[in-house]
From TrEMBL:
The keyword Transport applies. This is Uncharacterized protein. GO terms for biological process: vacuolar acidification. Keywords: Ion transport, Transport. GO terms for molecular function: proton-transporting ATPase activity, rotational mechanism.
Amino acid sequence: VLKTPVSLDMLGRIFNGSGKPIDNGPPILPEAYRDIS
């Protein structure tokens, strides 16, 4: 099972297909991890 980090800090950010930020913003500190299905 794949999991991805989630956080309110992700709102308005730009990510690649792997979920990594590509907008040169600050690092994302995950609040939880969600399953990808």
